[in-house]
What we know:
Elements: H1 6-17, H2 21-28, H3 32-39, H4 47-56, H5 62-67, E1 88-89, E2 95-96, H6 104-156
Antiparallel strand pairs: 1-2
Helix pairs in contact: 2-3, 2-6
Amino acid sequence: MSELTINERIKFLIEKSGMSVRAFSSAIGVTDTNTRNYIDRGSKPNSEFLEKLIRRFSDTNPTWLLLGEGQPFLPKNPNSVELPSNPIKNNSGNSVGINHGISRQSQGASTAVEVQLKAALELAQQEIGMLRDQLRMKDQVIETKDEMLTLLRSQYNRPN
Length: 160
């Protein structure tokens, strides 16, 4: 992977995130045009873009992103505690309440998914707003055309 350009590494991260360029850009707080310039046109990303990317996707290895050295993602947090997937039984043979298979790390992953979902929801709401604006403009254009037709018809039927 070290032979990839920084632009290709950004594209790789977008693909691995499973997000569209638009959703990815929204998640880090930049325009998708900005991101597309980096991945499609080969423009060099500025420090603000890189900082936002690393802050938002904290599992990204900054050394790999900037220099292409090492692995794309940081190793999993060694402080996470994996809980057993089977319940622990007490002396009487009854199961003791444990969150089956849930670790602190998987809770962090669900938080990341929540953030991605919130970003996607916000993007969808923005698109809905734009579509509503377009519908209003379409209605105005139709109304203007109807007025023009009415005027033209009245001129045509008018005696000379």
